Amino acid sequence: MHEFWVQALTTGDVRLAADIGGTFTDIALRAGQRLWTTKVLTTGEAPEVGLRQGVDRVLADAGLSLADVDVFVHGTTLATNAIIERRGVPTALLTTDGFRDVLEIATESRFDQYDIALVRPVPLVERPLRLPIRERMDARGGVRLALNEEDVLQAAATLRHSGVRSVAIAFLHAFMNDAHEVRAAELLRSVLPDVSISISSAVCPEIREYERVSTTVANAYVQPLLEGYLARMEQSFRADGFRGFLAIMSSGGGLVSIDIARNFPVRLIESGPAGGAIFASRISATLAATDVLAFDMGGTTAKVTMLVDGQPRKARVFEADRTERFLKGSGLPLRIPVVEMVEIGAGGGSIARLDTLGQLRVGPESAGSQPGPASYGRGGARPTVTDADLLLGLIDPDDFAGGAIRLDADRARTAVTADLAQAMQLSPEGGAHALYEMVCENMASAARSHAAERGVVVSRQTMIAFGGAAPLHAARLAEKLEIARVVVPSSAGVGSAVGFLDAPISFELTRSRYTRLDAFDFSGVNAMLAAMSAEAAGWVRTGAGEAPVATRTLAFMRYVGQGYEIEVEVPSRALVDADLVDLRRGFEQVYEALFKRAIPNGAIEITTWSVMVSTIDAPPQAEAASPPPLPAIPKDLIRIFDGAAGRDVEVPRYRRESLAPGAHFEGPGLIVEDETATLVTGSFRAHIHPSGAIVLERKEAR
After folding, report:
1. How buried is residue 82: exposed, middle or buried, by Cβ count under 10 Å (0-12/13-18/19+)?
2. What is the pLDDT of residue 274?
3. d(CA 89, CA 440)
4. What order of strands is seen across the sheet that includes strand 71-76?
5. Pairing relation of β-strands 332-339 and 314-320?
6. pLDDT band per the 50, 70, 90 thresholds, residue 10
7. For the range 589-592, what are the long-range contacts, defined as Cβ-Cβ under 8 Å and sequence gap of 24 or more?
8. Other C-beta atoms lying within 10 Å of the C-beta of residue 593
9. Across the strands, what pairs with 15?
10. What pLDDT band is residue 618 in, cutting at 50, 70 and 90?
11. What percent of the chain has pLDDT over 70?
């Protein structure tokens, strides 16, 4: 077991958080009730450099040093970007003889059956480095063929001079019996001590061969990169006086130790967006909003998450590097706990172009932080969303990111004109408006699809918008989705980093063990669940001490013969005969809600179990009633381009810090702050909530 090294999370008064995105690195520092935040450009080749720049800046603002920090919580897109950009280390796969091609055979399905030129995701391990090993376990973990240790040693000899830096070991049915994988790993380490090794029985001990192998390979592919980065980061912090504890944000919305992050980096794939979901959840509690659409738009991507009763939905599988961004099955499946969301290439740095049919396309390619949008003046020459926002007058070129980055409007105009406006026979501002509209429509389409798949009426949601680019696009997105209420919280520009500060100490374990309700294996299941609960609680208790914790147990159930399961919550204790009636009833209720009818007396089976132990934080209290309304006083008047009118219009501009609770005004208008800006369109009126959040309400809704 790896030490869960977060003791100070329950006692520390000063917490620091950092979210490294594809374009910006966001920093948040909380000391007592005070919060300091900042944004810096991400340094792609060495993310720790930009991280330290941001950390040093926010500490200086607070008058503190690293020695004063009790807890540092970190999230990063390094693992995600390495997979998408294929920048992981050379990796090999040892697998059961006869199964070396499982990564290419996959599930034998076509994600687009009518596309004769269908492009499948490229495996992370090339075929010559997928080495077969003679061994075999049966589906219940019995040994059918003993491990051929000579095959393992021969594989090691083959890999010694191949340049391989990491090895994944994934044997058939290893989730039921890990003996062969453990022994193979021991043999490899004895002759290849400098090679990282990931075994499927530790990374993903679940059924479904393709997903288990894919997840283990992805873990191996990025592990040396994450190990190196985390080691450099920790060394830098320690050298400058940091004596606190490091915690890493996981994709499932909980904090894990740095040692767990080093061993299972695949669990960090969506760590940033998970922090955003926690941020939105806390804000929803403050506003007493239950059904929420969380909209996170940064420099590289946009994410949409649905919150039910104020809590984000969770998923068991995430697809990385999709070849078709909206098509399930077109990416690499990673079987990890993850906050459920839809993610598209629609950020401030997303590049716009005209395709061969002359249609405007935005993303998924991004200019990132280097070279960045054309207006950054760092070598980028192609038009991006940020360039369009600048030309529309929504961004002050001298006050972008609090004045840290000076934007060049002439470069933005040149890029938009040359690549878009001329071909569309529009003015530069007209081309920028077309780009703005297209990126908003892309996000609206993703939100509609995501809501429809989950049976959610999107127009009934409250939108919570955060991320550096979201507040500039939230009102227009809400118009397209017919949403009547939009909330832009305080510190929205660095929302994910702030969410890290509120993340619970938690850990989730998943194991596959098959049983039917009509022949339930009480002794085997109860022993397994007790062991899982003890293991997860041990990790959490190390960090939480005697703080209250909650245990949640899930069974993944289906009718016998079906191919996929649905999750059903079960009692977090030893199961008894009387629970079987409740298990059937619970399954049928969930099944009927999803598919409109259950199968009377159908045989039911359980394939997989999940146990999560988490600290319990007192939810934030809803704020008191708003103070009497008072007119908001603008800082000045500015001109922005009105696409509907085809001309510039004059609108008031407000500084957010000058707007007291109760301040209100009718749109259109612009509210600016150091890390973002909020566009209030003519369809909305805005007021300041007692929490400091900007609340936009449709005028016709009153």
Report:
1. buried
2. 87
3. 36
4. 34-41, 24-31, 14-20, 71-76, 245-249, 255-257
5. antiparallel
6. very low
7. 590/566, 591/559, 591/566
8. 11
9. 30, 71
10. low
11. 96
| pLDDT tens by residue, 277-306 | 999 998 998 888 888 999 999 888 888 999
Q: Which two tokens stand for residue 319?
A: 């697809």
In angstroms, rounded to a whole number, what is the distance separating the alpha carbons of residues 417 and 394? 18
AA letter at 555? A
Question: What average pLDDT does range 51-68 have in this prediction?
Answer: 92
- Per DSSP (E only), the strands in 220-275 are 245-249, 255-257
- Domains in the chain (CATH in brackets) are 7-83+227-268 (3.30.420.40), 86-219 (3.40.1360), 350-437 (no CATH), 506-615 (3.30.1490)
Cα–Cα dist 115/36, whole Å: 51
| Per-residue model confidence as pLDDT tens digits over 238-247 | 998 998 878 8
C-alpha 633, offset from chain centre? 38
pLDDT, mean over the chain: 88
Residue 236 pLDDT more than 80?
yes
176 CB neighbour count, 10 Å cutoff = 19
Q: Which helix or strand (DSSP H or E) is residue 540 part of?
A: helix 522-544
**Tokens 């006692």 label which residue?**
11
pTM of the model: 0.86
CB-count exposure of residue 601 (10 Å: 0-12, 13-18, 19+) = exposed
The angle that helices 470-481 and 428-453 make with each other, rounded to 10 degrees, is: 60
In terms of DSSP bridges, do strands 166-170 and 196-199 run parallel, antiparallel, or are they unpaired? Answer: parallel
